[in-house]
Amino acid sequence: MSDRPSERWYVRQRERDLEARGRSESLLGPERAIFAEMMGLTANCLDAVFAGGRFDDLPSRRMIEFGNHAFNLLWSAWDEALAGRYDASRGHVRSIGESCEFLMALIADPQIADRLGDSTKDVYLARRVVKDALERGEPGAGRAHFDVMKKAHDDVQALSHVCNRAISEALPLLNVGGQTIGVVRPGGATSQIALRLVAIPLAGSAAQLFGILSGGLAEAADIEEDLWRRAVRRAETLADELSSELGTMGTMAPMQTLYFARSDEEL
């Protein structure tokens, strides 16, 4: 190891990340197994598509690109959460959601494949396409879906920008003497409640991604319809389980003070 202070910090931070990930794994609830299952199924779906080689058409290629992007963002967000960098983890949430909206739009209308992804405003096009498709099937369903997606988008809008909400709401939280303390530490710090508040929605997003992507690529992946429907029902069941878990999870009192920790400080 180099004697240079910067190099020592780098090596130690890498070691701390490994320690934090191991500690975080033991702090998670059922979301850990759900995330692993849904991500594994999604990877298997993409592997089957690649093995079959049936993705010469533009809509399939676009679906693979958006699905792969969402998959990688989910994995990065999960890894950052395990390392105790919850603010960085939440920074991916909006892009993960928009990728899923693009996938839904491609399923609703494959002909828009050449129009998606060129602009950051294309999410509005994707939303309209899905809304119109649902309206054709059942009047009112499209409007209801649009309202849900818009609210979800508005809720995470701030997380993709630098603002107090994106920073302060994702701090590691500690309970010391009955006080809730937010920890500011270069490199992050582990906190069970902050970890689970980030990890549970990520597991839900993994279930959503699998349900959408496997449906859009079922033919290219040569997934039998019955098998696919069972897998999607499984994803929906797990998503409901996560929602219940989030609703019943105990919470700390609001953050009352901040603690600024050095990067080499043990907490």
Largest sheet: 3 strands, mixed
Question: Which blocks of ≥5 consecutive residues have pLDDT under 50?
Answer: none
How much of the residues is beta strand, in percent? 5-15%
Q: Identify the overall geometry.
A: globular
Return the domain count: 1
Strand order in space, largest sheet: 1-2-3
Quaternary structure classification: single chain
First and last CA, distance: 25 Å
- Strand element count: 3
Mean pLDDT: 85
Instruction: Quickly give the structural class.
Output: mainly alpha
Instruction: Encode the helix/strand succession as letters.
Output: HHHHHHHHEEHHE
Number of helical elements: 10
Tell me about this structure.
The protein is mainly alpha-helical and 267 residues long. The longest helix has 25 residues, at 58-82. The chain has one domain (28-162, 190-251). Strands 1-2-3 form a three-stranded mixed beta sheet. The protein contains ten helices and three strands. The mean pLDDT is 85.
